[in-house]
């Protein structure tokens, strides 16, 4: 039986995987397709991506279910044809199939939950009840799929993150990580809806999150300035997953030009700032994970040498 990830993360640095969407695009995901479709259309390719991250040294892989709430799925023609419960259970099943094929039963599967894509009033028509119901449906399916933990990520509205967190805790006792997505402004770090790291840390810890952190939007060289600030707000475990630099757009597609080595140099500063778990977001690949594995292993060896 696996040890609780909450215990592991208090003992050593934990490595999450990298981008799923960018990997699917590289594998041929079409413009009118959505990532969650591939759980059914091309399950072997999704498994192969998971296995590639495991082979690169990831401790945690994330299910291909980022946009698998009923609200998000219903926003596209492709998504309307999918049953949210089936999508999430299938996503979990593919991740565990990857663990089996990679002979890595001790690694962890995180049930990935992203934003609904809608906004609360007065900007939009999303309500707390509707959001909670959609997140609960997704969380129930991921729980049935047997995920080891939940990852609520890329949240630009703290209110929506809270509804997702509450929904998960209504259906599961497993660990929950919550990552907000911040941008750097002249007056500090803010989400799209104006939430600050201070507000996020206070509210999410009070709501029972087990890990806090940030992902997406910020590149690795910009997120390292956020790390000490977050670390000063709480003694809870922190998870950071930045993008692979800022994208350049070629023929309408985002291209990330940062090298894995450059990315790892920035992530080293996150470790030095006391961040407990790291990984990658948009533009990162198993090559980035491999560099982070070497970095973390070296960091741990130095820590062991200091204690001996």
Description:
This protein has helices at residues 5-11, 21-26, 38-41, 43-56, 70-73, 77-80, 84-101, 128-144, 158-171, 197-206, 220-223, 226-231, 260-272, 286-307, and strands at 14-15, 60-62, 108-113, 149-155, 176-180, 183-185, 188-190, 211-219, 238-243, 248-250, 253-255, 277-278. The protein is built from 14 helices and twelve strands. Helix content is 46%, strand content 17%. The chain has a single domain (5-307), classed as Homocysteine-binding-like domain (TIM Barrel), CATH 3.20.20.330. α4 packs parallel to α14 and α8 (128-144) crosses α9 (158-171). β6 and β7 form a beta hairpin. The relative contact order is 0.13. The strands form three sheets. Strands 1-12-9-8-5-4-3-2 form an eight-stranded parallel β-sheet. It has a two-stranded antiparallel sheet with strand order 6-7. The protein has a two-stranded antiparallel ribbon with strand order 10-11. The chain is globular and about 55 Å long. The two termini are 30 Å apart. The protein has 308 residues and is an alpha/beta fold. The longest helix is centred in the C-terminal third of the chain and has 22 residues, at 286-307. The model has no long low-confidence stretch (mean pLDDT 95).
């Amino acid at each position: 039986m696996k040890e609780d990830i909450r215990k592991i993360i208090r003992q050593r640095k934990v490595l999450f995987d990298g981008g799923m969407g960018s990997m699917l695009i590289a594998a041929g995901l079409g413009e009118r397709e959505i990532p969650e479709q591939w759980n059914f259309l091309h399950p072997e390719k999704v498994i192969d991506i998971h296995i590639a991250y495991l082979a690169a040294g990831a401790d945690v892989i994330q299910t291909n279910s980022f946009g698998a709430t009923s609200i998000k799925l219903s926003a596209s023609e492709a998504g309307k044809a999918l049953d949210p419960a089936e999508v999430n259970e299938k996503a979990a099943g593919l991740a565990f199939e990857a663990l089996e094929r990679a002979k890595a039963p001790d690694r962890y599967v995180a049930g990935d939950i992203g934003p609904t894509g809608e906004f609360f009033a007065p900007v939009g028509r999303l309500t707390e009840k509707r959001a909670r119901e959609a997140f609960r449906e997704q969380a129930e399916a991921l729980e049935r799929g047997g995920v080891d933990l939940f990852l609520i990520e890329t949240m630009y509205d703290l209110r929506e993150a809270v509804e997702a967190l509450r929904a998960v805790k209504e259906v599961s006792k497993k660990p929950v990580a919550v990552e907000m997505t911040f941008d750097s402004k002249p007056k500090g770090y803010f989400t799209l809806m104006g939430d600050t790291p201070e507000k996020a840390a206070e509210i999410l810890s009070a709501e029972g999150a087990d890990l806090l952190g940030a992902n997406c939007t910020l590149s690795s060289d910009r997120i390292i300035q956020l790390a000490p600030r977050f670390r000063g707000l709480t003694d809870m475990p922190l998870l950071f997953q930045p993008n692979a630099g800022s994208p350049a757009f070629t023929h309408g597609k985002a291209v990330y030009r940062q090298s894995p080595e450059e990315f790892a140099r920035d992530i080293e500063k996150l470790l030095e700032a006391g961040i407990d778990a790291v990984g990658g977001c948009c533009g990162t690949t198993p090559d980035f994970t491999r560099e982070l594995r070497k970095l973390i292993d070296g960091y741990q060896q130095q820590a062991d040498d200091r204690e001996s």
